[in-house]
C-alpha cells in the first residue's frame, strides 16, 4: 500500500531584526508552510519573503492565525469576545491572502497558532467563532486541527474540510492530547527517536505516550516545529526516515484536490 503524509512547519515568524528559525532551510524539507499573519509574530516584508520562497519550492501555504499577542508569541490564553475573534481571524487571513497574491501564490488552508489552537480544540464557543470567520472569508479553505479533538467534528458539521494533525516533537498523554509545555518532557529533542516515532505514526497510526502506553493517533499532517533548537536537523531526519521507508511527502491539499476530482 502506498503511504503518503504531509509535513508542515510554522514559518514567517521573524519580526524586524529579531530572527526566528531558518525558513529557507525548512522550506526545503516540509510540504506545507503555516505562515504567521502578524498577530503573534511576523512582519510584512519577512512574511512576503517566506511566501516567495515557498512558491519557488512548491510548498502549500496556510494562514497561521493567532490571538493578538506579539509579546507572548501567541501562547497566552485569552477570552476574546466573539465579534473581535471573528474579525481578527478574517483580518489575518485577508492580509496573508494579499501578500500571497503578490508572491504569485495562494492560501490553501488555516492552522491556528499556540493558545488559540489549543483553546479551540475543545472550547466550542471560540471554535465556532473561528469556523465562522473562515467560512465568511473563504469557505474553501481547509482547517488543520489537533487529531482527535472535538474541533474536527464541529468544523466538518459546519461544512469545512478538515485535516487532523500530529506533532513530531511533542509528547502525548495516554488520552491522546499534547503534554503541556509547562510539564517536564513535553518537548522531544532526540532527532532519531522522533523520526522513528513519525514512521510508526505513518505506518501504524500510533505513538508512544509519555507514560509508555500506546496511543492511536489518526493524522494526515505532521508538524515539525521550526523554532526549537536543532529544528532543521530534526525535520530533516524525520523526512529522510519517512522517505527511506517508502513514505511519500506531499501536501495534504494535493490529496484533497485529488479526492475532489475522483
From TrEMBL:
Summary of subunit composition and partner proteins: Forms a complex composed of PxpA, PxpB and PxpC.
Keyword match Nucleotide-binding: yes
Biological process, per Gene Ontology: carbohydrate metabolic process
A Pfam family that the UniProt record links to this protein: LamB_YcsF
PANTHER family: 5-OXOPROLINASE SUBUNIT A, UNCHARACTERIZED PROTEIN YBGL-RELATED
Family: Belongs to the LamB/PxpA family.
InterPro entries recorded: Glyco_hydro/deAcase_b/a-brl (IPR011330), LamB/YcsF/PxpA-like (IPR005501)
Alphabetical keyword list: ATP-binding, Hydrolase, Nucleotide-binding
Listed name of the protein: 5-oxoprolinase subunit A
The UniProt record lists the keyword Hydrolase: yes
Known catalytic reactions: 5-oxo-L-proline + ATP + 2 H2O = L-glutamate + ADP + phosphate + H(+)
EC identifiers of the protein: 3.5.2.9
Organism for this UniProt entry: Acidovorax cavernicola
Protein task: Catalyzes the cleavage of 5-oxoproline to form L-glutamate coupled to the hydrolysis of ATP to ADP and inorganic phosphate.
Superkingdom, natural source: Bacteria
Molecular function in Gene Ontology: 5-oxoprolinase (ATP-hydrolyzing) activity; ATP binding
Amino acid at each position: 500500500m502506498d503511504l503518503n503524509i504531509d509535513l508542515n512547519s510554522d514559518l514567517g515568524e521573524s519580526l524586524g531584526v529579531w530572527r526566528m528559525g531558518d525558513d529557507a532551510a525548512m522550506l526545503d524539507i516540509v510540504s506545507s508552510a503555516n505562515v504567521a499573519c502578524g498577530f503573534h509574530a511576523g512582519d510584512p516584508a519577512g512574511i512576503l519573503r517566506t511566501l516567495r520562497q515557498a512558491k519557488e519550492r512548491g510548498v502549500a501555504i496556510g494562514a497561521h492565525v493567532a490571538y493578538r499577542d506579539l509579546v507572548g508569541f501567541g501562547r497566552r490564553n485569552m477570552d476574546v469576545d466573539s465579534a473581535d475573534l471573528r474579525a481578527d481571524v478574517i483580518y489575518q487571513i485577508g492580509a496573508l491572502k494579499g501578500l500571497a497574491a503578490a508572491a504569485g501564490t495562494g492560501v490553501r488552508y488555516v492552522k491556528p497558532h499556540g493558545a488559540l489552537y489549543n483553546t479551540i480544540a475543545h472550547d466550542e464557543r471560540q471554535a465556532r467563532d473561528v469556523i465562522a470567520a473562515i467560512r465568511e472569508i473563504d469557505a474553501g479553505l481547509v482547517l488543520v486541527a489537533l487529531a482527535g479533538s472535538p474541533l474536527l467534528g464541529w468544523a466538518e458539521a459546519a461544512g469545512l474540510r478538515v485535516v487532523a494533525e500530529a506533532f513530531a516533537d511533542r509528547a502525548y498523554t495516554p488520552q491522546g492530547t499534547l503534554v503541556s509545555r509547562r510539564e517536564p518532557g513535553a518537548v522531544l529533542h532526540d532527532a532519531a527517536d522522533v523520526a522513528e516515532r513519525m514512521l510508526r505514526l505513518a505506518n501504524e497510526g500510533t505513538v508512544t505516550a509519555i507514560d509508555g502506553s500506546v496511543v492511536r493517533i489518526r493524522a494526515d499532517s505532521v508538524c515539525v516545529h521550526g523554532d526549537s533548537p536543532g529544528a532543521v536537523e530534526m525535520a530533516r531526519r524525520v523526512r529522510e526516515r519517512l522517505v527511506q521507508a517508502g513514505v511519500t511527502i506531499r501536501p495534504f491539499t494535493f490529496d484533497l484536490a485529488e479526492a475532489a476530482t475522483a
